[in-house]
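# nightly structure sweep
# worker-07 picked up a monomer target from the shared queue
# config: single-sequence mode, recycle default, output format = structure tokens
# input follows
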Amino acid sequence: MAKRPGGLNFIDERIVWIDVARGLLMALVVMYHTLPPQIVANFINPAACTFFFLSGLISKEGSFKMNLLKRFKQLMVPYYTMASVNILIWLFVKMIVTREELNFMLADVVLNVLTVRTAVGMIPVNIIPLWFIPAVFVMEIYYSVLSKLRILPVGIVLGFVSMFFLYGSLPFKLDVALAVLPYFAMGKLVKSFGILTRRVPVIMTVVASALYLISSAFCDEVYLMEDYFGSSPSLYIFAAVVGIVAISGMAQLLERIEPLKRIFSLFGKRTLFVLGYHIVAGFLIYPIFDFLGDPIEIMERFWYVYWLINMTVVYLMIRFLPEPVITILSGSFLAKRKGNAPKHALGKCEEKIH
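# output follows
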């Protein structure tokens, strides 16, 4: 960036509000996985599309072959690494706690992880959030191929249409990647207009936030990882679009509040690590919940306490774990090598997920 506009903060070529936005989104993801009431889950669901928008917003151009190899190192290697660590954690907890929801055949778990079949009931819950990483990888392949063939608009239309007619959980999240492709393309388009470095007006943030709350409240029973967008996909699309504006604007406002900026930007810089291990934070205290009663019932009843516990444990992990440990656990050891770690891509693995 040759010119840095006033009012926006940059640190080592990073745009701070994007880190804050990712951190804010990760806080919502952690909340979603603490079994909150359905209305709270509804408010969170469409916000996930902002991740894909941010991916497009800060993505870099390059040859298809080079990008494919680079993104495999930056995304799929971390996916399989963190999945392996989470399998070991599941096996450890399973030895201590004998609950039905922990009972899976190891061979089935390994096969489902290898093929990215991460639906509920197919693999242990601590592995499920990792579906997002292969979805981003496949989505970017779609974008590159469709752009090269000059039929990207067709792919975008198919992405929106698929939300109405396709439902399931295909291997490698082929269906989900198509459905979220439009939001990635939207980020690329916004970037081409140079809007990346412009602030969202406060009034626009307020209006978009209000519209988001109203529309997302009715996005009931949405399961993005299974390519199901509720009874009204069109309402979900609207909520996702206004959510992008609302979250971007809120992140730019939070950037001005130093304590919140520090916390959210810390999560934003370590998004991949947080995504991979935030459930583990609660998973490791599962035996305590089991001693007190039904763990699921306790989590549902005190979901907000469970959320605070998870957030605190994850914060302490990313704050105090040595850098080499985070690099190994997040699977970013290949992406961190010279020439493999761009400063502003999702693939700076343990630090970014767009």
